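Example for tutorial group B:
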């Protein structure tokens, strides 16, 4: 940590506000690395408390959190008063103070989530070229709005970067769509729910030797999906979702905060650079050569890798920055958290003005009609969970459920290879250009750095094994 801080100090200058803030941490003059670790552990503990505050805020209106069971069509089941709204506002203020602003690193305002994430982008800049996936993003959208309430005001640095307000064309707080690039200005494509399907070629389910379903179909829409366990030599219980981008060409897509922010236009390859952080890359910029230090950034990073007992670090000079890296996922998650503060404030303001009445009118959201017959009915629900696009699909006959399938965020990101041999986004991000470079195979901390950027719901149960099957324990030091 101390060597990376000194690297940033050399690149930015000793008088940069963020450098001054880091070097001014308690105990930094004695042991800079220990001071940084102590600060980060303190921030982690603060984050746990803010997480509790977020749950308390939701519980005011939903009865419990985070798995609330109080939502009903058209409202909530909990009665609340003006005092409850004031309580919610106080909690939202506390959340806002911890999250901070995207400009906090530039101003040296330490102690916020935004400062810490941008600091990580400066301390580990090579991770803008590590963990690359397909650069394909899909999101289902959430936050139904009426026409009168569809414009959300932005505050602080968010208003400076993105404008004073925004309105999504489909009247959701976040829109539904997909993109095949994180380049600035690329338009989102509309989602056709009938073009979603799953493969089980790499999954532990009953199929033909070709990887197709027992009826010979390679990809099945969730309404026709089958879940029949039959483990052989596969390596996952997850299915492999895909989206047909045209002509039956099912492609693998990434979901989650980065996907949502890219689809909605709030994040693109180079957004941090556009915000004034010039060490961060622009779209298409080639990566640093940390092996021989042939460029300025590579030269700054090479000595740090040599401290680990290596001749140098990864050579990323052949990797083009595409906005779909380890650091992009982390940065987009933080930026979205800040955006959601404004979204929550907007919703709370509307609630403040409508106690005792509705006033919202009809929804502005429409979806293609679901095909039905007299006896067979189909239904679906699509929204965004914390980890990304979530959909549930039900099929009924004569009043009874005959098939129920769920296509969940971790399934999109952590899924195995499909019938075309294409791996899921997370597996892809460990391979080829922009894949993982491991300094010490006995402590491969670089692998969890990449996989954890997806925030899997199975993160606590992820293990690393060698080809011989031995589990590897990774020690992640915090305090000295």
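The residue assignment follows.
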């Amino acid at each position: 940590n101390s060597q990376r801080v000194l690297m940033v100090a050399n690149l930015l200058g000793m008088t940069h506000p963020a450098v001054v803030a880091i070097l001014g941490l308690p105990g930094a003059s004695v042991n800079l690395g220990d001071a940084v670790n102590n600060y980060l552990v303190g921030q982690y503990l603060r984050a746990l408390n803010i997480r509790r505050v977020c749950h308390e805020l939701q519980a005011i209106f939903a009865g419990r959190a985070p798995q609330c069971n109080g939502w009903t069509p058209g409202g909530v089941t909990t009665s609340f008063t003006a005092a409850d709204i004031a309580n919610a506002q106080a909690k939202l203020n506390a959340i806002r103070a911890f999250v901070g602003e995207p400009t906090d690193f530039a101003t040296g305002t330490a102690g916020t989530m935004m400062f810490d994430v941008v600091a990580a982008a400066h301390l580990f800049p090579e991770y803008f070229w590590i963990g690359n996936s397909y650069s394909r993003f899909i999101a289902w959208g959430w936050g139904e709005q009426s026409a009168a309430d569809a414009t959300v005001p932005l505050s602080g640095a968010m208003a400076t970067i993105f404008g004073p307000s925004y309105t999504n064309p489909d009247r959701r707080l976040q829109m539904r769509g997909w993109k095949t690039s994180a380049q600035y200005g690329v338009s989102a494509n509309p989602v056709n729910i009938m073009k979603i399907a799953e493969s089980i070629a790499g999954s532990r389910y009953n199929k033909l030797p070709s990887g197709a379903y027992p009826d010979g179909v390679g990809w099945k829409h969730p309404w026709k999906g089958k879940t029949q366990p039959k483990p052989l030599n596969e390596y996952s219980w997850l299915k492999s979702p895909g989206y047909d981008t045209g002509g039956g060409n099912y492609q693998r897509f990434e979901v989650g905060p980065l996907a949502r922010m890219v689809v909605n236009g709030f994040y693109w390859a180079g957004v941090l650079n556009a915000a004034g952080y010039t060490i961060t890359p622009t779209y298409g910029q080639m990566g640093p050569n940390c092996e021989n230090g042939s460029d300025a950034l590579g030269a700054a990073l090479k000595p740090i890798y040599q401290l680990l007992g290596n001749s140098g670090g990864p050579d990323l000079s052949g990797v083009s920055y595409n906005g779909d890296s380890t650091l992009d996922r982390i940065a987009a998650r933080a930026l979205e958290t800040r955006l959601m503060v404004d979204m929550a404030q907007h919703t709370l303001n509307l609630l403040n003005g409508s106690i005792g009445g509705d006033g919202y009118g009809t929804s502005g959201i429409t979806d293609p009609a679901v095909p039905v017959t007299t006896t067979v009915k189909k239904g679906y629900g699509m929204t965004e969970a914390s980890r990304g696009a979530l959909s549930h699909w039900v099929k009924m006959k004569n009043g009874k459920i005959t098939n129920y399938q769920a296509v969940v965020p971790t399934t999109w990101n952590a899924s195995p290879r499909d019938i075309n041999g294409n791996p899921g986004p997370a597996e892809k991000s460990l391979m080829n250009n922009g894949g993982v470079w491991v300094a010490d195979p006995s402590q491969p901390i670089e692998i969890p750095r990449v996989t954890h950027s997806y925030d899997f719901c199975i993160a606590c149960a992820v293990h690393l094994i060698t080809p011989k099957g031995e589990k590897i324990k990774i020690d992640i030091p915090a305090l000295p």
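Residues 354-369 have pLDDT under 50 and may be disordered. Compare this with the pattern of hydrophobic and polar residues in the output above.
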